[in-house]
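User:
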Amino acid sequence: MNTAITVPRSLLNKVPEVTLSFWIIKIMSTTVGETGADFLAVNAGWGQTATRSVMAALLASALFVQLRTRRYTPWIYWLTVVLVSIVGTQITDLLTDAWGVSLYLSTAAFATALAVIFGVWHRLEHTLSITDIVTRRREAFYWVAILCTFALGTAAGDLATEALGLGFAWGAVAFGALIALTYGAWRLGGPAVLTFWLAYILTRPFGAALGDLLTQARAYGGMGMGALWTSALFLSVIVMLVAVAQIGMNGRQATPETN
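Assistant: Predicted structure:
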C-alpha cells in the first residue's frame, strides 16, 4: 500500500528533468572535472593548493546562489555541477596523492559515506527522488550526495583504471557497460530512484576514464589531445546545451504572461 507523504512546498523543484541532454551534460561535466583540475594545477601552473582553494571558493559561491533561487535555473544548476565535479576530483586526489590514502580505502570510505547520506536523507524525508526537491533541507541533502558521488566516482575510476590495471580505454568500456546495464534494468521496470543514483555514480568514473583517454599522451595509453583542448571542447558543448535549456526555460516562464 502506498502512503502519501505531505511536504510543504516552499520551492519549485530545483533540479532538471532527467533527459538525454541531462546525461550528456552530466558526463561531460565529469570529464571537465578531471581535465579541468589537471589543466589548472599543472598546465596553467596554479599548483594543487591554489587550485583547490579557488575552486572551493567558487563552488561555495555557486552553491549559495543555487540555494537562494526558488526554481530550477539551468545555468546556475549546471555551473554548480561542473564546480562540484572539479572539487570532488580534488578531494580524492588530495587523499591519494598528498596524503597517501589507498584507493581501495578511499573508495570504500566514500561508498560508506554516501550510504549514510542516503540513509539519513531517506529517514528524514521518506524519499530520495530528485523529482521532489522542493525544500531547502532536501536540496542540501541532494548537493551533499552529489559531491560524495563525484568523490566516490573519482576514487572508483582511478581504482579500476590504475590500481586494477584496466587502463583508460577498457575503463571507459567497463563503466559504459555498467551504465548500459543500469539503463536496461530501468527499462525492464527496475526502481527509478535506485537506477538513477546508480547511473549518476557510474557516469563519474566513465567520464573520468574518457577524459584521461583523450588527454593523456599516447605513451601512457591516451590519445594525446591534452587537458586544454579536451576541457575547451567539452565546456563548449556544455555551454551550448545549457544555453538551449536556459532559453527554453525563459520561454516557458514568459508564456503565461503573454496569454
